Amino acid sequence: MTIDGSAYAPSTITVRKGDTVTWVNKDPFPHTVTAAGKFDSKSIAANGKWSYRATQAGDFDYICTFHPNMKGTLVVQ
User: Fold this and answer.
1) Does pTM top 0.85 for this prediction?
2) Is the peptide bond between 10 and the residue preceding it cis, with omega within 30 degrees of 0?
3) How confident is the prediction along the chain (77 residues), in pLDDT tens digits per residue?
4) Which domains, ranges and CATH numbers included, belong to the chain?
């Protein structure tokens, strides 16, 4: 997964339970990957990355807390 142009790409990703997803921030400023009550990357610096292991099935909508117009969905099967 990439964060580029103040957007998550792709905006929706489907993984299997137990998979690890990594977001790479290609923007020159920080972002977060935050699904309230489920996961929170905290600040991901420019050129930084953050990984999350999907342990629970479901659809998880997430945002960047710094830029709430950025939205994505993690689907865990």
Assistant:
1) yes
2) yes
3) 999 999 999 999 999 999 999 999 999 999 999 999 999 999 999 999 999 999 999 999 999 999 999 999 999 99
4) 2-76 (2.60.40.420)
